[in-house]
Specification:
- The structure is a single chain.
- It contains eleven helices and ten strands.
- The protein has two domains: about 1-100 and about 215-245, D-Maltodextrin-Binding Protein, domain 2; about 100-205, 3-Layer(aba) Sandwich (D-Maltodextrin-Binding Protein, domain 2).
- It starts with a helix and ends in a 7-residue tail after the last helix.
- About 40% of the residues are buried.
- The strands form two sheets. Strands 2-1-3-10-4 form a five-stranded mixed beta sheet. A five-stranded mixed beta sheet has the order 7-6-8-5-9.
- By secondary structure, it is α/β, with parallel strands linked by helices.
- About 40% of the residues lie in helices and about 20% in strands.
- Helix 2 (about 35-40) links the parallel strand 1 (about 25-30) and strand 2.
Length: about 250
């Protein structure tokens, strides 16, 4: 009877272990990585992966509240710092994974010059007319935080302050312009590159805003050899070839 009981316990433990191994890893990733990250994960030959996309601030607060993510990919170091300061990142796993740039976009079909303009040639009020300017919410959405710094550097922030349509994340900001609800907006170069519904009007000089860096790390409580292998894969040349095709850049 004791042998049978031990066998039953062992079988249950093995079954539980198998179930855990088969459970998909959960990545919390910045909305601007959707599409590129989906393609990267399609090339991953490990266990299944589930991705939750949202603004980095939203995801960081969910992790802080106990959400069971294994890996966090943020579009701004601030939100990775937020978790690290609270002991919510696995020690030694944080790395800068990607970089990006900012561009000004208009709806596809808008009358624009044949060339990408120099930023100094643009008066934003001429472009938006009686409409609005799209940017991520500058209080917490990374693309908006970078965008606010750029507008301050250009001297545009004050004149546009009452005309801003705030996007809840990077893709929502892009959608304002894609749908023609905003006649001009500031978005990531990677988002503009993958959209056939906007045209790039101008590139924003990198010196007008902090470097756009995407850090990634394992989350405390979600550490596992598989999660570490996945993080290594995201930093691999095979993954970066896909990210580059989607308009992302290498971190400096």
């Amino acid at each position: 009877m004791r042998a049978a009981l031990l066998f039953t316990i062992l079988a249950c433990l093995l079954c539980g272990a198998c179930t855990t191994a088969d459970e998909p890893l959960l990545i919390f990733a910045a909305a601007s990585t959707r599409g590129a990250l989906d393609e990267v994960l399609a090339a991953w030959d490990g266990p299944p992966v589930t991705v939750s996309y949202a603004a980095s601030s939203t995801l960081a607060r969910q992790i802080e509240a106990g959400a069971p993510a294994s890996v966090f990919l943020s579009a701004h170091p601030r939100w990775m710092d937020h978790l690290e300061e609270r002991g919510l990142l696995a020690a030694g796993t944080r790395r800068d994974l990607l970089a990006n740039a900012l561009v000004l976009v208009v709806p596809r079909g808008a009358p624009i010059p044949a060339r990408i303009l120099d930023i100094g040639e643009i008066d934003p009020l001429d472009w938006i007319g009686d409409g609005v300017f799209a940017m991520g919410d500058p209080d917490h959405v990374p693309v908006g935080m970078y965008g606010r710094a750029a507008l301050e550097g250009l001297g545009w922030l004050e004149v546009l302050s009452s005309r801003i349509a705030r996007g809840a994340d990077a893709r929502a900001t892009l959608a304002f312009v894609e749908r023609g609800e905003a006649r001009l907006g500031v978005v990531y170069a990677s988002d503009a590159a993958m959209s056939d519904r906007v045209s790039i009007l101008a590139e924003i000089p990198a010196g007008l805003h902090p470097p756009i860096t995407y850090p990634a790390a394992m989350v405390t409580g979600g550490e596992s050899p598989t999660a570490r292998a996945l993080l290594d894969f995201l930093a691999s040349e095979a993954a970066h070839e896909i990210f580059r095709r989607h308009g992302f850049r290498e971190p400096s």
